[in-house]
Design goal:
Subcellular location: Cell inner membrane; Cell membrane
Order of helices and strands: EEHEEHHHHHHHHHHHEEHHHHHHHHHH
Keywords: Cell inner membrane, Cell membrane, Membrane, Transmembrane, Transmembrane helix, Transport
Strand order of the largest sheet: 1-2
Largest sheet: 2 strands, antiparallel
CATH architecture of the largest domain: Orthogonal Bundle
CATH superfamily of the largest domain: MetI-like
Distance between the termini: 47 Å
Family: Belongs to the binding-protein-dependent transport system permease family.
InterPro entries: MetI-like, MetI-like_sf
Number of helices: 22
Shape: globular
Helix content: 55-70%
CATH class of the largest domain: Mainly Alpha
Strand content: under 5%
Structural class: mainly alpha
Membrane topology: Multi-pass membrane protein
Number of domains: 2
Length: 584
C-alpha cells in the first residue's frame, strides 16, 4: 500500500491506501497458453482416459449398476497373488541389477575418456530402443535348445526374463546417471583426494550423494518399464512367468474375463501412480543437482599440486571391467540373432530373407509390406506425438511463482506420464470398445487407418516430453525477462528463444518417438487389421506358427526391425545438435 498526502502549507491530508493495480495478461497470451494446455488434455482425454475408463468400467458395471465384488473374486484366486508377486519380484530384481551394472557403466562412459567412447555409448542405447518383440526373439534364439547357450537350459525361465529386462533397461541407468556425473563439479572430489581420501571413500562420501537423485530417478523408471513389460515377458515366459500386463492380455483375449482384466488394470494403475510419484520427486531433485552442476562447471576447476591419477586404480579398473562384460552381453544376443537368421538346413544362406517378399503363412501380406505399413504408421504417430508432446513440454517448462500454479504444472507433467505405465492391452481393447461411434459421431474409427498411429502416439508422447523438457528447463529465465524488458512480446520471446533452443532436441525426440511407434506391440496387436499388420505383429505371428521356416522368417524379420530402429535412432542422435543433458 502507498500513502498519499495532499499538498498544502503545514497541512497534511489523511493517508489514503492505494492498492497496486493488478497487471492483466494480454488476451492473446491467455488464449495461446490455454490452447497449449487444452489440445494435449483433449488428446489424452479422448484417446487415453476415455478408453481406459470404459474398459475398466465394463468389469465393474453389471446390469447398469456398480459392482465391486470383482476385487474379492479376483484376489481370492491364488493365481492373482502369484502374478502380482512375480511382477513385483521381477521388476525389483531387474531394477537392482540394472542399477548395480549401470552405475559402473556411467562412470566408464561419462567420466573417463577413451577412443571410441561415442560409438560405445550408441551401442549401449540400441537395446533400449529395440522393440520388445525383437528383444524376446533375440534371447529366445540364444537360449533355446540348439542355440549357443542352450546347454544352460534357461529357455522359459525367470533368469531369462531377468536378463532380457536388464538388457533392455541398462541404458536408462547409464544415460541418466552418466549425464549428471559428467557435469558434476570435480573440485570437491579433487579436494577430498588431495586430503588423502581413497577413490572409494571420495566416491562414497562426495560423488554418490550428489548422484543419488539421478540414481533414484533412473531406478524408478526402470522399475516402471519392468513392471509393465509385455512383449519380452510374453515371448520368454509365456503363461508360466506371467506379469500383470500379460495376465490382462490373457484374461481379455483367451478367457474373455473383463472383470479380472479390469481389477488387474486398477492394480497396475495404483503401482504406476506410486512409481511416477517417486520418479517425479527424484527428477525434481536431479534437476536441482543439474543446475548446481552447470553452475559449478562454469568455474575453472581447482588444480591441486598432486592430482591423483585414478585411471589405474582398482576401482576404475573394476568399473571398466564390469562395463566391458556388460557390453559383451549386449552384443551377444544381437550378433546371435543375425547369425541364426542366416542358418538354413545346417548351412548358410539368405533364404529366410528372400522369403520375406512372399506372403507369410496365414497372412495375406508379406513381411516387407508389413515393414512399409510400420514405417507409414510410425511417421503419422511421430507427427502426432511431436505436436502433443511439444506443447506439454512447453507448458511444463514454465516456472510459475505461485505454489498452486507450480503444483498444477507438476500434476500436468505427471498426467502425461501415465501412458508409460498403464497397460497397452487395456488401451488397445478400450479403443475397440469406444471408437465405434466416438463422441456420438457417425463414424467408425475402428476401421480407420489413423487408429493405430493414434494409439502409438499415446505411448510416444511421454518420450517426447522427457526428451524436449530438459532443454526448455535449461533456459535461464533471466533471458526471457531480459527480452521482455527490451520490449519483446511474449510470442516473439517464444519464437526467437524457446523454439530455436528446443529444436536441438527435436531430432532425438523424433528418433525415440519413431522407435517407440515401430516397436509398439500391446495396443497394436488389438488394432492392426489382418491385411495391414505391423512388423512386430508379423514377427509374433510367425513365432506362433510351427516349422523351422516360419521361425527363420521371424528371425530375419526381427533383424530387419532391429536394423531399421537402430538406424533411425542413430540418425536422430546425429541430428540432435548438442542437446543439453537428456532426461529419461
Amino acid at each position: 500500500m502507498t500513502s498519499l498526502t495532499a499538498p498544502g502549507p503545514g497541512r497534511t491530508a489523511p493517508a489514503v491506501a492505494v492498492r497496486p493495480a493488478r497487471r492483466r495478461l494480454p488476451v492473446g497470451r491467455v488464449l495461446g497458453w490455454g490452447l497449449a494446455v487444452a489440445v494435449p488434455v483433449a488428446f489424452l482425454a479422448v484417446f487415453f482416459a476415455w478408453p481406459v475408463v470404459v474398459m475398466v468400467g465394463k468389469g465393474f458395471v453389471t446390469d447398469g449398476r456398480l459392482d465391486l465384488s470383482g476385487f474379492a473374486d479376483v484376489f481370492s484366486r491364488p493365481r492373482t497373488w502369484r502374478i502380482v508377486g512375480q511382477t513385483l519380484g521381477q521388476a525389483t530384481a531387474a531394477t537392482v541389477l540394472s542399477v548395480a551394472l549401470g552405475v559402473p557403466g556411467a562412470y566408464t562412459l561419462y567420466r573417463r575418456r577413451f577412443r571410441g567412447r561415442a560409438a560405445v555409448r550408441a551401442l549401449v542405447t540400441v537395446p533400449f530402443v529395440l522393440p520388445t518383440v525383437v528383444v524376446g526373439v533375440a534371447f529366445r534364439s540364444l537360449l533355446v535348445d540348439g542355440g549357443p547357450l542352450g546347454f544352460l537350459h534357461l529357455d522359459g525361465t525367470f533368469a531369462a526374463i531377468l536378463a532380457a529386462l536388464v538388457f533392455f533397461n541398462y541404458a536408462v541407468v547409464v544415460r541418466a546417471v552418466g549425464g549428471l556425473w559428467e557435469r558434476l563439479d570435480p573440485r570437491a572430489t579433487q579436494a577430498a583426494r588431495g586430503l588423502g581420501a581413497s577413490p572409494w571413500r571420495a566416491f562414497r562420501t562426495v560423488e554418490l550423494p550428489a548422484l543419488a537423485p539421478a540414481i533414484w530417478s533412473a531406478a524408478s523408471l526402470v522399475f516402471l518399464f519392468c513392471a509393465t513389460a509385455f512383449g519380452t515377458v510374453l515371448i520368454l515366459g509365456g503363461t508360466r512367468f506371467g506379469t500383470i500386463e500379460t495376465e490382462i492380455w490373457i484374461q481379455t483375449t483367451q478367457f474373455l474375463d473383463l472383470r479380472a482384466a479390469a481389477v488387474l488394470s486398477v492394480v497396475q494403475l495404483v503401482v504406476v501412480v506410486g512409481v511416477l510419484t517417486i520418479a517425479g520427486r527424484a527428477r525434481a531433485r536431479r534437476e536441482r543437482a543439474l543446475s548446481l552442476a552447470a553452475t559449478g562447471t562454469a568455474v575453472r576447476p581447482l588444480t591441486l599440486r598432486r592430482r591423483p591419477a585414478d585411471d589405474g586404480h582398482p576401482l576404475a579398473l573394476a568399473a571398466a571391467g564390469v562395463t566391458a562384460v556388460v557390453l559383451l552381453a549386449i552384443a551377444v544376443p544381437l550378433v546371435n540373432l543375425v547369425v541364426r537368421s542366416l542358418r538354413v538346413d545346417g548351412g548358410w544362406g539368405l533364404d529366410h530373407y528372400r522369403a520375406l517378399g512372399a506372403p507369410a503363412p496365414g497372412v495375406p501380406v508379406s513381411v516387407w509390406q508389413a515393414a512399409a505399413t510400420s514405417v507409414e504408421t510410425a511417421v503419422d504417430a511421430t507427427v502426432i506425438a511431436l505436436v502433443v508432446g511439444g506443447l506439454v513440454a512447453l507448458v511444463v517448462s514454465r516456472r510459475p511463482r505461485r505454489r498452486a500454479a507450480r503444483r498444477a504444472v507438476a500434476g500436468f507433467d505427471a498426467l502425461f506420464m501415465l501412458p508409460l505405465g498403464v497397460s497397452a492391452v487395456t488401451v488397445g481393447f478400450g479403443f475397440l470398445v469406444t471408437m465405434d461411434r466416438p463422441l456420438g459421431l457417425a463414424v467408425d474409427l475402428r476401421t480407420s487407418p489413423l487408429l493405430v498411429p493414434i494409439a502409438q502416439a499415446v505411448v510416444a508422447v511421454p518420450l517426447v516430453v522427457r526428451t524436449v523438457l530438459p532443454v526448455l528447463r535449461a533456459i535461464d529465465p533471466r533471458l526471457r525477462e531480459a527480452a521482455g524488458t527490451l520490449g519483446a512480446a511474449p510470442g516473439r520471446v517464444l519464437r526467437t528463444l524457446d523454439v530455436p533452443l528446443a529444436a536441438r532436441s527435436v531430432g532425438l525426440a523424433i528418433g525415440f518417438a519413431f522407435a517407440a511407434s515401430l516397436g509398439e506391440f500391446g495396443a497394436t496387436s488389438f488394432l492392426a487389421r489382418p491385411d495391414r499388420p505391423t512388423l512386430p505383429v508379423m514377427v509374433f505371428r510367425l513365432i506362433g506358427r510351427p516349422g523351422p521356416d516360419n521361425y527363420g522368417m521371424a528371425l530375419a524379420a526381427s533383424v530387419v526391425l532391429a536394423a531399421l530402429t537402430a538406424a533411425i535412432v542413430a540418425l536422430a542422435e546425429r541430428l540432435r545438435a548438442g542437446q543439453v543433458g537428456g532426461d529419461w
